[in-house]
Design a protein that fits this description.
Length: about 220
């Protein structure tokens, strides 16, 4: 869900400018799941651009407080949201923890790194939501292992898949993103990153990414 439309537009524009989001309709990427995708998102690159990094940090910090109220702890999902999550925690003057995909196989065998107490209010920071599975895995660890009160999750960007919406509803987790796929492709078309045929292709992919195949011909 989008909380602030102006921030959604600004964030989409910045992610395109620094090429954190890359669009290749004619030569799609292959995700680890095997899905062919005309878009690839790597929001970790945000950390390399101070002005963009500050925009993301300030936007996330503001929305954490406005949507959920000030929590006791900020949690980042490893590995992509560790950096930006720590910056949000610093901005809000809060403790920070991060959550691994699974417990370590050695040492203390932690899945949650950092100090957190039972019943503390936690907001989770994520860099990217596709199906939501990795995000919900982190939420489950916080709820089950730490006995934390997870208020919700905010991501930098969401693909806006209905599958993700369903997964979050089923786990009773409220989630938001600074921007999403709809704002991204609209901004990309407005800024001439895409022509009309490429825009239509991206819309088609979003409807059924698992079965989508790229077209070989484009109108000039």
């Amino acid at each position: 869900m989008i909380y602030n439309e102006t921030i959604a537009q600004e964030t989409a524009n910045l992610l395109l400018q620094i090429k954190a989001i890359k669009l290749k309709p004619q030569d799609p990427f292959t995700w680890s799941s095997g899905i062919k995708s005309p878009i690839y998102c790597d929001n970790r690159i945000v950390l390399s651009y101070p002005a963009v990094r500050n925009h993301i940090k300030e936007s996330l910090s503001k929305q954490v407080e406005e949507i959920f109220g000030k929590p006791d702890v900020i949690a980042g999902v490893a590995t992509g949201a560790i950096g930006i999550g720590a910056l949000v925690a610093e901005s809000l003057g809060l403790p920070f923890v991060y959550v691994r995909p699974k417990p370590k196989a050695h040492g203390r065998k932690n899945q949650i790194e950092g100090q957190i107490e039972p019943n503390q209010k936690v907001v989770v920071i994520e860099d990217l939501i596709s199906t939501g599975n990795s995000s919900l895995n982190a939420v489950e660890a916080l709820r089950e292992e730490a006995k934390a009160n997870v208020k919700g999750l905010i991501a930098i960007f969401s693909y806006g898949f209905e599958k993700a919406n369903l997964n979050f509803r089923n786990k009773n987790v409220d989630f938001y993103s600074l921007s999403n796929y709809e704002y991204l492709i609209t901004k990309a078309a407005d800024n001439l990153y895409l022509n009309e045929n490429e825009l239509e292709l991206l819309k088609t992919w979003h409807l059924n990414p698992e079965e989508w195949t790229p077209k070989s011909q484009y109108k000039k």
